[in-house]
Amino acid sequence: MTVEAIFEATIQVLLRDGMNALTTTRVAERAGVSVGTMYQYFPNKQALVYALNARYLDALAARIEVTCQEQSGAPLGPMVEALIETYWTAKTERADITQALYRSVAELNNDALIHAFADRVDRATTEMFSSASDANFADTSRTNLSLVTVIYGTVRNAFERALSEREVTDLKQDLKTMCRAYLANVTV
Amino acid sequence: MTVEAIFEATIQVLLRDGMNALTTTRVAERAGVSVGTMYQYFPNKQALVYALNARYLDALAARIEVTCQEQSGAPLGPMVEALIETYWTAKTERADITQALYRSVAELNNDALIHAFADRVDRATTEMFSSASDANFADTSRTNLSLVTVIYGTVRNAFERALSEREVTDLKQDLKTMCRAYLANVTV
DNA sequence: CCAAAACCTGAAGCTTTCTTCACATTGTGG
DNA sequence: CCACAATGTGAAGAAAGCTTCAGGTTTTGG
Asked: Which nucleotide is nearest to B21 (CA to C1')?
């Protein structure tokens, strides 16, 4: 489909030349369509980048929701590990795309996008944690916020450092350790 | 000083209008100088943004180094709390600037900048942790990497969610808890 | 006080990019 | 096979930005 080709081309250009070089002409060329076609699907360049990110975040949220449902009722330890695993995998299996998108959102008015995503995902994780067989939080939403902020933040920062495979494995392991240790502390 | 005015103007424009609207004309205008003057100090626009970030990261690294020296020889618990406190404060005391810079680096070829910063700071924190009165790591550099990645990542992610003051306080507290709990696990 | 250096000015050239629109091509239902 | 809708084309207009440079102003040091 044309739209799909345009999205793919956008990612390619973003990867190859960065956000500065992301021009309508270049995207259209790489997508194998004319500029006019692009404007039939997106009112302007910003809308294109916005749509690309929305699409990506939607897919990511959906994956997290699946994990949360799968883990419903499980003990907290496996739960948090599954969440880390899902998020980490989703971000790293196409690391190049993740990186490209991280850069492209920076110059968007992305607050609405980010918050909608955060709200949706928070709802899923909060519900999951509440359902844990050993759930007994003093403050569920606080614990949820701390966990997800630490996890998502760590993954993102791991991207900015060029870590070796070994370092990534170790870091992921340690993140799990930290989250489990934290949960042991905050459950009554 | 002129250069300082230009830097300040760059931040202002970045804050008010975002990276898209960061034009040489606008920066010069806001700085109260002519465009020509700007080009006497920076060979081009990118160099300006680069220099701004370099300057900021240098100051941040210096602050972290001070904390690391102050904490030399202390126990691990206070150490990691001091690191969190320093980093968090440095990032939040001028949250607007932090946000503006996070956005501006995105479209820089920032790898060199980021890695130089990471190396410098990692050296300081690794040395600090090694000096701890109760230091006894199986793998010092691994533990260091895990701690700093989690801490810096969490702070960054906290920025993207619009957290209330209460949530920030709680999150910081929980981050400290997590780091201490982690340290208790990895020290022999 | 003066000459040289340092610093500043901002209009204009050049380039690049976004966006439009009149027209061409392709697909579809009868 | 035809008429009509949907889709695609790409040259050109319009706007905006980066950078230069010839010349003005201020500072410095003797």
From this structure: D17
> Which distant-in-sequence residues (6+ apart) come within 8 Å of A9 by Cβ?
A27, A28, A30, A31, A32
Domain shared by B37 and B73, yes or no: no
Structural domain includes residue A48: no
Q: Which amino acid is at B151?
A: I
What tokens does A142 get? 């606080």
Measured between CB atoms, which of A109, A146, A178 is closest to B182?
Answer: A178
Angle, nearest 10°, between helix axes A95-105 and A140-160? Answer: 110
Q: Which of A153, A170, A178 sits opposite B156 (nearest CB)?
A: A153
If asked whether residues A32 and A119 sit together in one domain, one would say: no
**Number of domain units in chain B:** 2
Q: Are residue A19 and residue A63 in the same domain, yes or no? A: no
Say whether both A33 and A74 belong to one domain. no
- Residues A33 and A116 both lie in one domain: no
How far A172 CA lies from chain B's nearest CA (Å)? 9
CA of A40 vs C1' of C30, distance in Å?
A: 28
B124 lies in the same domain as B145: yes
Quick one: A96 and A148 in the same domain? yes
- Is pTM beyond 0.85? Reply is yes
**Contact B181/A186, CB-based, under 8 Å?**
no
Q: Using the structure block, give the residue that is written with the tokens 């980093």.
A: B87
B1 shares a domain with B76: no
Nearest C-alpha in A relative to B163: A145
Taking the Cβ of residue A118 and every Cβ of chain B, the question of whether any pair is shorter than 8 Å is answered with yes
Domain that holds residue B145: 53-186
| CATH, residue A29 | 1.10.10.60
CB contact under 8 A, B170 and A111: no
**What are the pLDDT tens digits along chain A (188 aa)?**
899 999 999 999 999 888 888 999 999 999 999 999 999 999 999 999 999 999 999 999 999 999 999 999 999 999 999 999 999 999 999 998 998 898 898 878 888 999 999 999 999 999 999 999 999 999 999 999 999 999 999 999 999 898 999 999 999 999 999 999 999 998 86
Question: Percent helix, strand, coil in chain B (nearest 5)?
Answer: 80, 0, 20
Report the alpha-carbon distance of residue B159 to residue B15 in Å, rounded.
Answer: 15
Mutate to test the interface with B, among A17, A57, A161, A187 (most CBs of B within 10 A): A161
